[in-house]
């Protein structure tokens, strides 16, 4: 195998102005190990040139003015949790869900897979930071991704702040996350078989990320999930300084009082997280309230010792959103953020090679009637589909759009604030058809953390004959915790407990259904209303009604202007607690928590308090 000369790499790094010797050494090692033909250092200012190169190479296609379309390999369309591993040198980091393996086993395995696999390719060096520059958390946010795929670079430029200055200016030149992404031969990796060659490994205590066998999404954009969640979760715990969570972050300004509130929180997939993050005030309340977007996927939380408040930053620079069902009704904010001229990249949606239009299920009620020129996510002409295939989706269910935060029309004016914003509330919410009311507030720290640890959503359980049983997703972090769940709960108690002015917790549910199957709450923009009640509760302006599982609003306390079509009996159900169903749920929760070793006694005590209160209510 012919190796690129070290002198040639030095010349490239010199020309790029990359002066950090630790980064230079790391680049040289991996360029030689993977057999890359050449090395190129990337800054955000290279975007237009790289776009032009990708268009010329056919890696991207134009999707109207200033928008682009890409199609992944058909076997490479989503994250693969069973191939995603957290590795460390300490077996005590093994969790119930983190797929832990010894670093001593995983590093050589990945090194062997990657050897020579970038032959003939360019190795792109992408220095980045996953935080607003100047943030107190910036030391944990700096990384370098090495990738052999140009489209990955273009996504990284949209999702992270990219430039050599971030690594040149490190206080400790050695302290950066080392990420290596090698695509591999996607035709012959045995995806989903016993011979599957793919591995996506975060060696957390070495701050090293090694991903092999994909060029799609979180498998390849190492700043996003691997660094922004898995590595950051570990760093936050190891340093004792912060939490890294799969959380949305939004701001609500009361124009009457001039006060802005900030809410963050976690929701499992298909529970409305992105739509809530990008919410606009309902028309009837728009004159008084303005909602601002900060982030839809990741938040890092820390406590400022000066004022004793919890602060949150969105470490990302962009949004990597699911296209399916995104339209003017469900998420007008996202529609505007991905309009022409935004530089958005669409992946695995349907594409019209004649008109350069894109389409996905839910973009409109029905697909385009004229199928001329339309190709599905696999690149196959819709017009040539067989009768058996005519009803198959045009877009992949996990098709995506990638756009920068600056394109989001209601982006918060202070979204680049290095300190972040003070957090008034932490909410959780999973899709459940009964039991969970519209909102219930929790004022006790341990009970709030307990509620997050027992977060769940309905998945396909009804089809499996266990209707009403949830798939638990603690804090919506089930696949992302880099250490054991018991220690994770303890760390939550420590970080939030250090705040003198703690956020209020709450659990929300927009998905209650009636006996006839219809949704009782209209959702979308109206979801702001229970959040406004929560802020009033925190301020002492309303008192709500105490229940065994938290405080719920009285119907008089909710701002329901413009909701004349909401039925009185539906509202009563939305604000009620089904004690019997909750008692059933407590048994499931006990089994779930029992999976985790070293769960703090405060969490078990919170479980017992809620369970005892339900039993007393039922008598």
Automatic annotation (TrEMBL):
Its EC number is 4.1.1.32. Keywords: Cytoplasm, Decarboxylase, Gluconeogenesis, GTP-binding, Kinase, Lyase, Manganese, Metal-binding, Nucleotide-binding, Pyruvate, Transferase. The gene is pckG. GTP binds at residues 270-275, 400, 431, 524-527. It is found in: Cytoplasm. The lineage of its organism: Bacteria, Bacillati, Actinomycetota, Actinomycetes, Geodermatophilales. Signal peptide: none annotated. Gene3D superfamilies: 3.90.228.20, Phosphoenolpyruvate Carboxykinase, domain 1, Phosphoenolpyruvate Carboxykinase, domain 2. Its main location: cytoplasm. Pfam families: PEPCK_GTP, PEPCK_N. Catalyzes the conversion of oxaloacetate (OAA) to phosphoenolpyruvate (PEP), the rate-limiting step in the metabolic pathway that produces glucose from lactate and other precursors derived from the citric acid cycle. This is Phosphoenolpyruvate carboxykinase [GTP]. One of its GO terms (biological process) is oxaloacetate metabolic process. Substrate binds at residues 79, 216-218, 269, 398-400. It is an enzyme of class 4 (lyase). Monomer. The keyword Isomerase does not apply. Belongs to the phosphoenolpyruvate carboxykinase [GTP] family. NCBIfam families: PRK04210.1. The active site is at residue 271. Residues 242-610 form the Phosphoenolpyruvate carboxykinase C-terminal P-loop domain. It comes from Blastococcus aggregatus. One of its GO terms (cellular component) is cytosol. It catalyses: oxaloacetate + GTP = phosphoenolpyruvate + GDP + CO2. Its cofactor is Mn(2+). It comes from the Bacteria.
């Amino acid at each position: 195998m012919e190796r690129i000369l070290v002198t040639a790499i030095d010349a490239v790094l010199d020309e790029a102005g990359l002066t950090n010797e630790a980064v230079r050494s790391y680049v040289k090692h991996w360029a030689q190990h993977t057999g890359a033909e050449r090395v190129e250092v990337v800054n955000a200012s290279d975007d237009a040139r790289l776009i032009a190169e990708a268009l010329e190479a056919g890696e991207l296609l134009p999707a109207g003015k200033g928008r682009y379309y890409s199609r992944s390999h058909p076997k490479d369309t989503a994250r693969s949790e069973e191939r995603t591993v957290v590795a460390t040198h300490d077996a005590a980091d093994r969790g119930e869900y983190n797929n832990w393996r010894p670093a001593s086993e995983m590093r050589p395995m990945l090194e062997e897979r990657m050897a020579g696999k970038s032959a003939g390719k360019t190795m792109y060096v992408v220095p980045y930071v996953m935080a607003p520059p100047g943030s107190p958390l910036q030391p944990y946010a700096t990384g370098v991704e090495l990738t052999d795929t140009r489209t990955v670079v273009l996504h990284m430029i949209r999702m992270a702040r990219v430039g050599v200055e971030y690594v040149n200016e490190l206080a400790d030149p050695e302290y950066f996350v080392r990420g290596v992404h090698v695509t591999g031969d996607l035709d012959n990796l045995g995806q989903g078989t016993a011979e599957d060659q793919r591995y996506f490994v975060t060696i957390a205590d070495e701050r090293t990320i090694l991903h092999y066998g994909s060029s799609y999404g979180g498998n390849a954009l190492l700043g996003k999930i691997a660094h922004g969640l898995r590595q950051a979760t570990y760093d936050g715990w190891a340093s004792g300084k912060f939490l890294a969570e799969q959380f949305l972050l939004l701001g609500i300004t009361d124009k009457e009082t001039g006060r802005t509130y900030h809410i963050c929180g976690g929701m499992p997939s298909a529970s409305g997280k992105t739509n809530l993050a990008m919410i606009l005030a309902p028309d009837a309340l728009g004159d008084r309230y303005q909602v601002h977007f900060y982030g839809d996927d990741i938040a890092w939380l820390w406590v400022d010792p000066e004022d004793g408040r919890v602060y949150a930053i969105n470490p990302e620079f962009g949004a990597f959103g699911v296209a399916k069902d995104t339209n003017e009704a469900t998420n007008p904010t996202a529609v505007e953020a991905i309009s022409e001229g935004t530089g958005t990249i669409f992946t695995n949606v349907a594409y019209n090679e004649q008109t350069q239009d894109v389409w996905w299920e839910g973009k409109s009620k029905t697909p385009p009637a004229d199928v001329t020129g339309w190709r599905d996510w696999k690149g196959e002409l819709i017009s040539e589909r067989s009768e058996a295939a005519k009803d198959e989706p045009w877009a992949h269910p996990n098709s995506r759009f990638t756009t920068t935060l600056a394109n989001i029309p209601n982006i918060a004016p202070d979204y680049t604030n290095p300190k972040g914003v003070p957090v008034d509330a932490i909410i959780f919410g999973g899709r459940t058809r009964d039991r969970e009311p519209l909102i219930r507030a929790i004022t006790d720290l341990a009970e709030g953390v307990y509620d997050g640890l027992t977060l769940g959503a309905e998945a396909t359980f009804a089809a499996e004959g266990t209707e009403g049983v949830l798939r638990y997703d603690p804090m919506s972090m089930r696949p992302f915790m880099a250490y054991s769940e018991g220690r994770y709960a303890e760390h939550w108690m420590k970080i939030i407990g250090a705040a003198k002015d703690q956020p209020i917790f709450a659990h929300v549910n927009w998905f209650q259904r009636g006996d006839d199957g219809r949704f009782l709450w209209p959702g979308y923009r109206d979801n702001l209303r229970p959040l406004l009640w929560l802020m009033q509760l925190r301020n002492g302006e309303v008192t709500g009604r105490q229940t065994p599982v938290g405080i719920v609003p009285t119907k008089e306390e909710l701002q329901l202007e413009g909701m004349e079509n909401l039925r009185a009996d539906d509202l009563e159900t939305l604000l009620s607690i089904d004690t019997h169903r909750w008692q059933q749920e407590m048994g499931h929760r006990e089994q779930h928590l029992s999976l985790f070793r070293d769960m703090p006694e405060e969490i078990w005590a919170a479980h017992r308090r809620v369970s005892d209160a339900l039993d007393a209510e039922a008598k």
